Amino acid sequence: MTDFEGLVAVVTGGASGIGLATARLLASRGARVACLDLNPQVDEPLRGIRADVSDDDSVRAAIDAVVAEFGRLDVVVNNAGIGAQGDVAANPDDEWRRVWDVNVGGIVRVTRAALPHLRRSPAAAVVNTGSIAAWAGLPQRALYSATKGAVHALTLAMAADHVREGIRVNAVAPGTADTPWVGRLLDSAPDPDAERAALEARQPHGRLVSADEVAGAIAYLASPLSGSTAGTVLAVDGGMHGLRLRPK
Ligand code: NAD
Fold first, then answer.
1. CA 124 / ligand 1 centre spacing (Å)
2. pLDDT per residue over 117-143, tens digit each?
3. Is the pLDDT of residue 51 over 90?
4. Which residues form a coiled coil (predicted)?
5. In a domain, 194, yes or no
6. How far is the centre of ligand 1, averaged over its atoms, from the C-alpha of 20 (Å)?
7. How far is CA 140 from the centre of its chain?
8. Whose CA is nearest to atom 23 of ligand 1?
9. Taking burial as the number of CB atoms within 10 A of a residue's CB, which of 51, 168, 183, 206 is the most buried?
């Protein structure tokens, strides 16, 4: 694994789950890391900054604060996301807009605010968190899946727009990952332990993906080790997508 010594990274949704694991990994490799999250509570050496990625003023203020404090910005991990359950009839328009605004609009706003700073970095990278939901045809996840399909398409378009100016854009597509988000879903089931066991059995490798495994993929795509990689979506899913398996 390369090191991020001297570099500054922003991780959205960095106070929990995949984002927190990523922030910790980048910091352990020498980056100074700001976690932009609705919840600004993170442990040292991470720097928590309260930000709502669905609000442009909030995002701009947070990116300005990062650059004022650290003097530069090299890596952006667009990871903040929220879920939506049900078929297309399940979510009223305001809910559709909210999920779109966070999962897709958040990437647009944060990247837009970061671009002038990334253009000055010799090691600029953007990594977006997509999902295998974009490919898998998951039941009862219509809106969420659509936003993640948009994240994958946006990743490709952003890579095309910025690779010639030295900014690489890639994405990860996690399978079901063991994070507080999934913990909350399991806890809402009548028998959480049985639900977890069933969920694990449905994964190709018989267990949930760990947040650290997704963080490792994000760190790779954020690092010069992947210096010739742009516009890719890297699945971290135990083989679900690559093996053309179907979630049961
Ligand atoms: P999580 O709920 O544990 O963490 C998400 C973080 O995002 C939280 O700290 C939350 O406060 C923050 N957040 C939510 N809305 C925000 C907003 N408007 N502005 C700023 N921060 C906001 O979730 P997680 O499981 O770690 O998921 C992280 C990302 O990974 C999401 O984009 C999710 O869609 C994606 N993902 C997760 C899984 C999984 O199985 N856990 C699978 C595929 C993709």
1. 23
2. 999 999 999 999 999 999 998 999 999
3. yes
4. none
5. no
6. 10
7. 21
8. 181
9. 51
- Residue indicated by tokens 């990994």: 25
- Ligand 1 residue neighbourhood (C-beta within 6 Å): 12-13, 15-19, 37-39, 51-54, 79-82, 102, 129, 131, 174, 176-177, 179-182
Query: CATH code at 25?
Result: 3.40.50.720
**C-alpha 24, offset from chain centre:** 14
Which pLDDT score, from 0 to 100, does residue 217 have?
A: 98
In Å, the largest CA–CA distance within the chain is 52
What residues are labeled active site?
Answer: 144
- Please check the confidence at residue 246 and state whether its pLDDT lies above 80: no
| Whether pLDDT at 13 is above 90 | yes
Asked if residue 118 belongs to a domain, the reply is: yes
Question: In this predicted model, what pLDDT tens digit does every residue of 155-188 receive, in sequence order?
Answer: 999 999 999 999 999 999 999 999 999 999 999 9
- The Å distance, Cα 80 to ligand 1 centre, comes to 5
When pLDDT is cut at 50, 70 and 90, the band that residue 15 belongs to is very high
121 domain residue, yes or no: yes
244 contacts: CB under 8 Å, gap ≥ 6: none
Residue of minimum CA distance from atom 26 in ligand 1: 17
Q: Which residues form the domain of 15?
A: 8-177+210-235
Question: What's the total number of domains in the chain?
Answer: 1
| Residues in the chain, total | 248
